[in-house]
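User: I'm writing a short methods note and want a consistent example. For Divalent-cation tolerance protein CutA, I'll paste the sequence; you return only the structure tokens, no commentary, since I'll be parsing the reply automatically.
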Amino acid sequence: MAEAYVQVTTTTDSRHEAAEIARSAVAERLAAAAQLVGPIASTYWWEGEIESAEEWMVVFKTTAERFEALAGRIAEQHSYDTPEIIATPVVAGSGDYLAWVREQTAEVTTDQV
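Assistant:
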């Protein structure tokens, strides 16, 4: 059951952008929850140079079925040319919490509105 769930991470250079991406993903039920972590210090290669930057990380809780839609939404809203969008499978977790994640990310049909 746990392999049906993922944690998805992205980083961005502003708390405001991170919060906007998090809020829209949750509002659209692409994620049950999103946590902002930061600021964090990032070091990475970019265009042949080692860069360092202060960033904000967003950690999304979602189902594997919703990953592609969530990744598309992150990419659409993100200001980076190549945003980090990484899904990590949830190997184990609280049954009640995972059931809540599934319930919160269920697609709403017109019958339910």
